[in-house]
Each structure stands twice: as C-alpha cells, then as structure tokens.
Amino acid sequence: MKYTLITSIISAFTIIQLIINEILFNPKKDGVDFVEIFNPSAHPINLQEIWIANINNAGAIANMHRISETPHIIMPGTYRVLTINPSMVAQHYPKARLQHFIKMNRLPAFNNNQGSVILLHQSGPAMGLQDFDILDSLFYTADMHSPFIKDPKGISLERQDPNLDTNVPGNFKSAAVAEGGATPGYQNSSGHAEETVLNMKSRIVSPDHDGIDDQLELHYNIAQAGLMATIQIFNAQGYLAKNIFRNTSISSQGTLVWDGRNDQGAVVNRGVYTIVIELYNNSGYHQVFRKSFVIALRN
After folding, report:
1. What angle do CA 107, 110, 113 make, to 5 degrees?
2. CA atoms within 13 A on the CB side of 102
3. b (16+ CB within 10 A) / e for 196-214
4. Are 17 and 75 in contact (CB under 8 A)?
5. Which of 22, 75, 141, 145 could disulfide-link 152, Cβ–Cβ 3.0 to 4.6 Å?
6. pLDDT in tens, 57-99
7. In Å, how far from its chain's centre is CA 250?
8. CA distances from 134 to 9, 18, 70, 119, 217 (A)
9. Could you give the CA distance from residue 206 to residue 219 in angstroms, rounded to a whole number?
10. Residues 6+ apart with CB under 8 A from 15
11. For residue range 21-59, what is the model confidence (pLDDT) as tens digits?
12. Domains of the chain and any CATH numbers
C-alpha cells in the first residue's frame, strides 16, 4: 500500500514513459499473440493505470483493455509480456521469462497482415477517451519481416532502438530465428555495438567430458542488427566438419557453442580447425570472419 502510494505520487509529477518493445501477431499453430512492453524511464509505473488498445477500421481507438485490475509495478529497465496464455508462449519459446508475464483476459485482435497496438495512460477517472494519454503506438505490417524469412509464423517483430520513434522505418524487425524467433520477457535479439567483436573462451577445445574446455564457446557482439548468418567449421585440410547455421537470422549478441561433434554426431579428430562466420543482409552488407582453434583430446 505504501509503495503504491509513493509510486502514484511519483507518477503525478513525472511524464509516464512506456514503450512497445515486441509483438507477435502471427503465432505458431495453436499459439497466441503477445505484446511486450518496456519501461525506459527512471521511474516505476503502475500498470493498473495503463490500457492496451488498437485502431478500428474507422480509424478510432477501440478494443481497450486495462493491463492490470490491481496495482502492478513495472520497474525501470524491465519488461512485461501481455498475453492470454503465458504457458503456451513459454511452451513455444523455452527461454521466455515467465516472471515478467501478465495474463490478460483479453487482448485486442492483431491481424496477421497488418494492424496496430496502442498504449494509453489513464490520467484521471475514465469518463471518456479525453481522460487518456497515448504513450506509444505501433502500426505494423507483415512486410516489416525480413525478406529472407519465408514463413513468418511464430516470428515476432522486435524494436531495434528504444530511443527512436516507434514507427521510424526499420525500427521493428524480425526476431532472430537462431534465438527461437521471439524473446518474450527478456532483451531483444537485436542490440547495438560500436563494432563487431568475436571472442573465444579458449582456443584449445578438448571434448572429452572432463569439465575443462569441453566445448567451443564464441561470444559475439555484432555492430549491425538484423543480419543473416552462415556459420561453419572446417578442418585444416579445408573439409567441412560442422554446419552450425546456414542462412539463418542471428541475434546481435550471444554465444555460439559447439560440442566438437560433426554433422554425423561423431567427435572430430585432433587438429587445427577454423570457424567461419559469414554475415549478410538484403541491403548489400557482407562480411566474413574467421577464428582458428585447436581440438586437443586429452584421453
């Protein structure tokens, strides 16, 4: 009660900032839509005062639903995922952070081809739309997905930059397929880095299950978002040892892990190997990175 009162006082003297961060409008078979919101401000926000809606065919705000019927605080720098079925979303996206979900009784309808989502702040007793402030709005189309994605079913659109206007062209792009196609409740698969950095945990890999450098770990941070990748491992003679990804959208940061097994499931022989990372997009960007390492079986 005390915390809610303090939050209400803070809200009364600050500008409410809440943004749309991710939307899944074309879910997998038997799946459900979700909208992820993010608090980019330095202040807590009570989601009891926030509504979600869309625009109807007449161009008016419609299908309004309060996010929470009871006080629910979203802290600065945190996410909330709004959906009617959190467990189904988590089933389709195992990395989902269920502690950041809010189960909604209803959501506005989000069509597969195009649609809209609006966040509204109830600034006083709700007598009419004049008592609401629009916090953020997204107008999406299926064409915003990467042209490399043949079937966008189950792939969300993620915000690229929280500091840019929501509807700036290119600010929402397809989530990385390598990340599972969506990132509900945690950081988007697209990030921002000054330059591309690739770092190996160790250049000596010994896949002998002794707990020491059993697998290759390559930590990466890519300067450009929304890239496709082909990632392969070759031996010293130039023969392909492992296809990790082929023509797959990749997140802007993460860790690649290889267990030392080839495409047939057998542990590769000792020797020098090279991981080749080819990055590209449909705008002409193309870059290839190579990192060499040693397979040194101890047993």
Report:
1. 175
2. 26
3. beeebeeeebbbeeeeebe
4. no
5. 145
6. 888 999 999 999 999 999 999 999 999 999 999 999 999 999 9
7. 11
8. 20, 10, 21, 6, 45
9. 18
10. 41
11. 999 999 999 999 999 999 999 899 999 999 999 999 888
12. 2-179 (2.60.40.1260), 197-295 (2.60.40.2550)
Tokens of 189: 């698969």
Residue 299 in tokens: 């047993």
244, burial (CB in 10 Å: exposed 0-12, middle 13-18, buried 19+): buried
Contacts 24+ apart (CB under 8 A), 105-110: 105/65, 106/65, 107/33, 107/35, 107/52, 107/65, 107/82, 107/83, 108/52, 108/53, 108/54, 108/62, 108/63, 108/64, 108/65, 109/54, 109/63, 110/23, 110/25, 110/33, 110/35, 110/54
